[in-house]
Write a structure and sequence with these properties.
This protein has eleven helices and 17 strands. The protein is α/β, with parallel strands linked by helices. It folds into two domains: 295 residues, FAD/NAD(P)-binding domain (3-Layer(bba) Sandwich), CATH 3.50.50.60; 94 residues, no CATH class.
């Protein structure tokens, strides 16, 4: 049955004006904003949650995967500030893949070989707030991009929905770092999602947090009406126990079968995630007798894949498996192809281990350029790549690099009063490497 449609018209105040508007305040968005602001540009970040950081803060995913040195000036500053708090593990080089790399025959051991760098995400929230303040960046929380005014490929304003109601933001350049390519989608430019043949996305994960206690009388057990009890460990959904400071752990639970770009499906994913969380918690308390006291659950589910933009170039899994180099490289990826099966809640990977390791590869500037748009870039896990390439490039370290590159490119374009497509790539690369970014 055809859906009912309504016509809607309203005068919207243009309350915010900036040189560069960064849409989405995850680590890619923060990196883009800082890179542009350091170069003298007036920047605003629009973020749907109550803080910057996205999955690295609100999502509770407290680990940096891949190499954590040589990621560029912004990421280096993030690390330095976390170190000031004593809130990040010591540096260990990522084991760069080569023919001499000894592969584990189990994915669990592969994750151990490529062990991420753990940090305390609660302190990262304050780090990001302070960085935005130090660079004079305006942050706008609890606000979503809901539409855009576009003329002849140029985005004039984006429409925002927040506590003040509908408002508009005007900027010379817009950078989509929403993770789901929300701004590009609402502006009417081409996007893609999921697998090429059926659009099924990689599974999500929910993070919840427990404290270890000694008094069993303090445990709160889960009533039967809330959980379908599991008696065997092999019947559990995939779950991974993460460090989370003294007497505490985080537990990540795999949630599959939902569409992060659909309102109803995403709601169901959150609800299903919390049901599976209770199943996992109940099993470990009741069957394994672990003294786990439920502390809290992340306010957002962790989305691995939403929409991705269609850019001037689409980075492919073949590119990253071959370690391809590009003349317009703006970022370097090293992390393996971390693609869980979207068809099961078990620890099943799409690719064989020997195919999932990749040599260092480059990401070209053209992947950030939104096709048919005059003044939009995309960075983070919604830049232009196929599903499996993005499953490597989506990690925080690489997202920060792509965000930083987008911020620098936007600043260079404004300095030269030029278009994004005419940015001097040699100069862009020099700026990246001047900040100790490795290409």
């Amino acid at each position: 049955m055809e859906q009912k449609k309504i016509a809607y018209q309203k005068q919207i105040p243009v309350r915010y004006k900036a040189d560069i508007a960064v849409l989405g305040g995850g680590i890619a968005g923060l990196s883009a904003a800082c890179a542009a602001a350091k170069r003298g540009k007036k920047v605003i970040i629009i973020e749907k949650m109550n803080c910057l950081g996205g999955n690295s803060t609100s999502g509770g995913v407290a680990s940096f995967c891949g190499e954590t040195r040589g990621q560029g000036e912004v990421f280096d500053e993030i690390i330095l500030r976390l170190e000031e708090f004593g809130a990040i593990a010591e540096y260990q080089p990522y084991p760069e893949y080569s023919e001499n790399f000894i592969l584990s025959d189990k994915h669990e051991e592969l994750f151990e070989q490529t062990k991420p760098r753990i940090f305390d995400f609660q302190y990262l929230i304050s780090v990001f707030d302070q960085m935005a303040s130090d660079y004079g960046i305006q942050s706008l929380f609890h606000t979503r991009v809901v539409d855009a005014i576009v003329r002849e490929g140029t985005v004039r304003q984006v429409l925002l929905a927040g506590q003040s109601g509908l408002e508009a933001c005007e900027a010379d350049i817009f950078i989509d770092c929403t993770g789901e390519a929300d701004a590009v989608f609402h502006a009417g430019f081409e996007t893609m999602k999921g697998r090429e043949h059926d659009n099924i996305q990689l599974p999500m994960s929910l993070m919840f947090f427990i404290r270890h206690i000694s008094d069993v009388n303090q445990l709160k057990h889960i009533p039967e009406r809330y959980v379908e009890r599991i008696e065997r460990k092999e019947d559990l959904p995939m779950n991974t126990i993460w460090p989370n400071g003294p007497s505490s752990n985080a537990v990540k639970v795999k949630i599959h079968g939902f569409d992060s770009t659909d309102s109803v499906s995403l709601t169901m994913a959150e609800q299903t995630g919390r049901k599976k969380m209770l199943q996992v918690l109940d099993y470990y308390q009741r069957v394994e007798n672990r003294k786990w006291y439920f502390d809290h659950v992340s306010p957002i589910i962790g989305i691995r894949e939403g929409r991705r933009v269609v850019g001037e170039y689409i980075l492919t899994v073949s590119d990253i498996q071959a370690g391809r180099k590009f003349p317009d490289a703006i970022a370097k990826g090293v992390y393996f192809i971390d693609a869980l099966s979207p068809l099961s809640d078990k620890r099943e990977m799409i690719m064989k281990i020997e195919d999932s390791m990749v040599p260092p590869y480059q990401i070209p500037y053209r992947c950030l350029l939104v096709k048919d748009s005059v003044n939009m870039l995309a960075a983070g896990r919604c830049f232009s790549a196929d599903q499996l390439a993005m499953s490597s490039a989506r990690v925080f370290t690489t997202s920060s690099m792509t965000g930083q590159a987008a911020g620098i490119a936007a600043a260079l374009a404004l300095d030269k009063e030029s278009s994004l497509r005419k940015v001097n790539v040699d100069q862009l690369q020099r700026e990246i490497m001047k900040g100790k970014g490795q290409l």
